[in-house]
Amino acid sequence: MPFIPHTEEDVAEMLASIGAKSIDELFDEIPAELKTGKLTQVPVGLSEMEISRLMHGRAQKDGFYLSFIGAGAYEHHIPAAVWQITTRGEFYSSYTPYQAEASQGTLQLLYEYQTMMASLNGMDVSNASLYDGASALAEAALMAVRQHRTSRRILIPQTVHPIYRSVTRTIVRNQNIEVVEIPFDPATGQVAIDKLDQFAQEEFAALVIPQPNFFGVLEQVDALTDWAHGKQSLAIAVVNPTSLAMLKPPGEWGQRGADIAVGEGQPLGIPLSSGGPYFGFMACKQELVRQMPGRIIGRTTDLEGKEGFALTLQAREQHIRRSKATSNICTNQGLMVTAATIYMSLIGPEGLYRVAAQSHANTLALVEQLEKLPGVKKVFGSPFFHEAALQLSVPADKVLNSLKAQGVLGGVLLENYYPDLKNTLLVCATETKTAEDIGKYVEMLRLALAASA
Amino acid sequence: MSVPAELKYTESHEWVKVEADGSVMVGITQHAQELLGDMVFVQLPDVGRTLAQREDCAVVESVKAASDIYAPLGGEVIAINTEVEASPEKINEDCYAAWLFRLKPANAGEISGLLDASGYQKLLDSEAH
Amino acid sequence: MLIFEHSRKNRRNYSQAPSTRPAKNNIPDNLKRKTAPLLPEVSEMDTVRHYTRLSQKNFSIDTEFYPLGSCTMKYNPRACNSLAMLPQFLSRHPLAPEDTGQGFLACMYELQEILKDVTGMSAVSLTSMAGAQGELIGITMIRAYHEARGDTERTEIIIPDAAHGTNPATAVMCGYKVIEIPTDRDGDVDMEALKAAVGPRTAGLMLTNPSTLGVFEKKVAEMSRIVHEAGGLLYYDGANLNAVLGKVKPGDMGFDVIHMNLHKTFSTPHGGGGPGAAPVGVADCLLPYLPIPIVAYEQGVYRWLTEKDRPQSIGRLSAHMGNAGVLLRAYIYVRLLGAEGMFRISEYATLNANYLMAELRKLGFEIAYPNRRASHEFIVTMKEIKDKTGVTAMNLAKRLLDKGFHAPTTYFPLLVPECLLIEPAETESKETLDRFVVAMKEILDEIATQPDMVKSAPHDMPLRKIDDVKAARELDLVWNPAG
Question: Which of the residue ranges A67-76, A329-338, B100-109 has the most confident prediction, judged by mean pLDDT?
């Protein structure tokens, strides 16, 4: 019996102690008419050797590709130590640190994480994580509405990740919160600042400001933050954590800094793994801390004055506050945060800067070389971080297919999210791409374009 | 347990002190304070806000519990105790001195509907069983 | 010592990041960061040592018995981890074309089919990243269902007082008013209160069965009838599905929507507080509203169903497809166990819980619902002990840490005073349970002879009792190098 240690003697002794004749008798409170539990779709059990063979086969079928896809999830080098330490049983198989004295490892790590994340974002405080970047934005929107008190509307530019917008709508709609979208300037790929005037007389709980935005383009964050504050709205930053090594952090945007910063933590040491588990981060100004959802760790002392750590501000949370909690979130993404904290420690401030700068430089090089090909045009004129939109003169889906046949994943089709952006690829080259990789992509694309022309 | 005779009480464990000018002070009782334990945070209503009777208008939090405070009477909030906001432990030290807010009652008649000390003591006795 | 206190300016790990700063940089000056973030500058070895040492300060399933009620802390098979971390799975981008992920998608599709079978539901979506998010999805679908029928007067969700805090928090997050109904003396929902609570405003009922009190709601079929007759839908909080796996299917109990916590029932790791995964299953009436993406299998090919396929879907809840890696671990686990293993989960979890309950009762501990079978967990109440000696459930919990056992869940469910919710899970041997009983006996003796020692526990942990009042009053949430 896999993972069940009981011998027949054990079972007999245990039943005798209980005073039951059989294990089945222990289920005698379940009405007989409900016991219909025949399983028809669960196959018979496999041995570890058999499941290993099955999974290796499936993994091989999926194979490896040279990928230039970004769009919210990024391939970065993950130091070997990160997951070796993270999967230690003491981190992997523990739970939420309710018993502080038996959880100091996780608690201290989370306190260190909060410190790193707050500093990276230039904010006062951070929570211990949310599910992912998209749901973190939805939570930030709810938080802004609670804080603002009078407005139940959120302004979100269309340059924010389309799925983040979709998730936010799904979650906030339940509370009759309205999401109002701002179009982008087709020349710059930035929020159309002139389009903001139409909202000047309306009240909004918050303006969401992406940096870099979904197109990889850098937004005019100072002006946007000040515009939001000028009309008593909160400024919610959606940022890429790697980029923050190079870019001005949300806490320094505009005159007063953004109020809440959220984002996808995946670039910090989390493998792509078909989309998860990742983690969402959230940092904010001190005065908003009680509106923040999720676990928060505080440093304190034990009875004898020794430094220690504990969950704090728990009265915001569902297990105490129930229907009046700031959110229903309970479990978050603890293990992913463990990996991210170790990642940030291993690479340090200079390492993170170099990862960011090399990703930026690689994408610059890729775009520069691709632009020289006939039939490739950069769509937006603004500076970008490590992603860019490129329009092809031929059907882009066919080009992607022929690249794929050569083992290259050439980017994401923007038309799937922005119907006006026909035959446009969103491409990304992180620090994991060498000059040869970039050269290979350029050559493959040249051939594919020539074949389609 | 301390249930001062000069105060009025609610079934949700607030105490009410009627002042000479007709305004009332509101706090939480010794029983409520003991049940909640060490106070760590108090959130009070904005001065000027108009409350309906039994409207939830403030929160007191300990480490492991949070409790809503209900307006014992309808009326306007005319003052809040900022000292308690800054040092919530004052509620544990002396809950009858650590008032939370003052109300100007909209309808003084509601005062007579509150429990007196003996009525509140009976409530506590019945809750103990 | 914090990692920052090991830091020395300009210390670096040269092999993990690019070796130089590239020459090219097009970031405009006004958007550049001026001061470096506060990340530590430490060697690889110091980092490894620091976090290895921190890990050693944790209790975990791999090191201690961890009978944390309601959390199902059972053995997380290592094969599930190592096979889910095969490099091809780890390196696959979520937006990579479907034909480059047929192996992965096959696992996801089969997991959907298996979960449909064990729950008796019509369809399953894997997107939910935790139990609370599964609840949010379920209640959002219930809302969509009523709205689609033009039935907009339903503004209330009924929830028993024994429910997890996530249930009322979720209902409110979904814009509903919570109607709480009490529990009777034997731990069942008070049927008269339920009948009085339902009506034209009832959108649905959220129920955990077996409940958080560790007992099976015997009248679940009648509850289902009452709620359905009133026009409401039934939500099954699958937190305790492990207790009835292969015995009863929520679909057969009349539920319209369910979430199942894979980090409990299907033994994916708890990770110090996540990631979880909580797929949602629905009956036919809610099928159009299921969140996307969902894996379909058509003409020998797996593909994602999207907005185009499911126009009435409530939408998306995660940036990609939820916690894929957790789902892979659950898939591997269920394939290792097979159909027969599904039954064994509930049978041995129930055997262990009833055995431990019987043994603790013999020691003199008061069982909160003494006339009931334990499901996979049960409650001890320390009320009488506290009244006599002043020793609380939390004191006992801390003393258990001294004896090398993680504490049970304390002070939940809220309706049982001074409670300990104990869930041993099926992977613990009789010897471990017996050692726990011995420890509980020792503490009982200590309460009689030296109660103050128990009250001031823990004594043998690296730290004495943590001052969580100070943690809340003097908020220190980030380290400040200036001190």
Answer: A67-76
